[in-house]
Write a structure and sequence with these properties.
The protein is of the alpha/beta class and 407 residues long. The protein is 37% helix and 16% strand. The protein folds into two domains: 7-58 and 309-406, Alpha-Beta Complex (Aspartate Aminotransferase, domain 1); 72-304, Type I PLP-dependent aspartate aminotransferase-like (Major domain) (Aspartate Aminotransferase, domain 2, 3-Layer(aba) Sandwich), CATH 3.40.640.10. The protein contains 14 helices and 15 strands. The strands form three sheets. It has a seven-stranded mixed sheet with strand order 4-10-9-8-7-5-6, sandwiched between helices. A four-stranded mixed sheet has the order 1-2-3-13. Helix 4 packs parallel to helix 11 (290-305). The structure holds pyridoxal-5'-phosphate.
């Protein structure tokens, strides 16, 4: 195919079909808004699954990236560079942990946490070699590597990727009794999303995270909180665990840590846990590179002001109030935490994809997850008036699907 063909045609022919994007081609972004190549603007109600918590091209983040681009971009970890230490110290302070290991993607950080937990199990807890187990939650989403999809319950993510990595036990999310029963002398960690984002912003019952913490402490098992999507302001706190006053042993961070500019993830834990790694036992060429951590440091500075967290708290009520009228009138479920909502469309009206396409026509970008659920996660920097306009579009779009379905 000629390279003068449209970008979408080129993507369809030469790009692997592992996504099914909505029919919009974004070419420019600023704050909570993006524009297509014809100049039509859309409100970004997805924010790259929370990677854009600070909006598109946040000036302080872009400035940090520009300054670093002009100085040094990559050393690999074969040499020291002048930003890695400060970044680790600042992220350690933000998490309240002693040590940090930067990686790139969220899945890589989850893999890192799993490797660290296994090693901790063998070398500190005294689990018999090759016996370590990790308890995971039903409905989880932690990324796409072979080990991670090995304990996914989603057939779409798993099919024909076996043989699968052993050593994982799944229990129902929110069931502390089942969790306790699944732990035995081989268990090294419990891996939990404080809010299950990909599952549709599924909230655990009140007190559940505190129960997980208590059980992990009593049974000498590491509590690993995957805050890749829930962390860094989205729920109205720096970490979703904070809302229950819970401090996990290990934080897994990603997405917004890279400021919506580049991939940056990290694992944070104390020295008695992360200290099990020694040179050569784990790593990544780009992990902690100067460009990424320059942006990461600017992200941490934004979070230290408390402003993104406060915005998410302030906008929680308007978000809930804007969507609540739909429950029983086109929607069959609604969950809200901070500036983050999962809305279950009545399947009789259509699929989540139908709703996304209807919203696209009204200038709002959003993405479905699992059948008829859509997840709404605008940048935390969104103006209240823009949020309310977008929510009005959601109500209109649902009404229009209802009218078309004759209900
Ligand atoms: N963990 C959670 C909770 C996520 O939501 C995601 C991605 O959606 C990941 C891990 C994987 O992150 P990445 O896509 O950067 O590998």
């Amino acid at each position: 195919m000629s390279v003068t063909a449209s970008p979408v045609d080129l993507e369809n022919v030469h790009g692997a079909h592992n996504y099914h994007p909505l029919p919009v081609m974004v070419s420019h972004g600023e704050g909570a808004w993006v524009w297509d190549d014809e100049g039509t603007r859309y409100l970004d109600f997805l924010a790259a699954y929370s990677a854009l918590n600070f909006g598109h091209r946040h000036p302080e983040l872009v400035r940090a990236a520009h300054e670093q681009l002009d100085r040094l971009t990559l050393t690999s970890r074969a040499f020291h560079h002048d930003l890695l230490g400060p970044f680790c110290a600042e992220l350690a302070a933000l998490t309240g942990k002693g040590m940090v290991l930067p990686m790139n993607s969220g899945a890589e950080a989850v893999e890192t946490a799993l490797k660290v937990a296994r090693r901790w199990g063998y070398e500190v807890k005294g689990v018999l070699d090759e016996q370590a187990t990790v308890v995971v939650m039903g409905g989880n989403f932690h990324g796409r590597t072979i080990s991670i999809i090995s304990f996914s319950g989603d057939p779409v993510a798993r099919t024909h990727y076996g043989p699968y990595t052993p050593g994982f036990r799944a229990v129902e999310y929110g069931d502390a009794v089942a969790l306790e029963a699944a732990i035995d002398e081989t268990t090294v960690a419990v891996l939990v999303e404080p809010v299950q984002g990909e599952a549709g912003v599924v909230l655990p019952p009140d007190g559940y995270l505190a129960d997980v913490r208590r059980i992990c402490t009593q049974r000498r098992v590491l509590m690993v909180a995957d805050e890749v999507q829930s962390g860094l302001g989205r729920t109205g706190a720096t970490f979703a665990c904070d809302l229950e006053g819970v401090v996990p042993d290990v934080y897994v961070l990603g997405k917004a840590l890279g400021g919506g500019i580049l991939p940056l993830s990290a694992v944070a834990a104390d020295d008695d846990v992360l200290g099990v790694l020694d040179p050569g036992s784990h790593g990544s060429t780009f992990g902690g590179n100067p460009l990424a951590v320059a942006v990461g440091r600017a992200v941490i500075r934004l979070l230290e002001t408390g402003d993104p967290q406060r915005r998410a708290r302030e906008l929680e009520a308007p978000l809930r109030e804007g969507l609540a009228p739909l429950v029983g009138h086109g929607a069959v479920g609604l969950r809200v935490r901070g500036l983050w909502a999962g809305l279950d469309l009545d399947p009789a009206l259509g699929t989540g994809r139908d709703l996304c396409e209807e919203l696209l026509g009204r200038g709002v970008l959003v993405k479905d997850t699992h059948g008829s659920t859509i997840r709404i996660s605008p940048p935390l920097t969104i103006d209240r008036a823009d949020l309310e306009w977008g929510l009005a579009q959601v109500r209109d779009a649902v009404a229009s699907l209802a009218a078309a379905a004759g209900s």
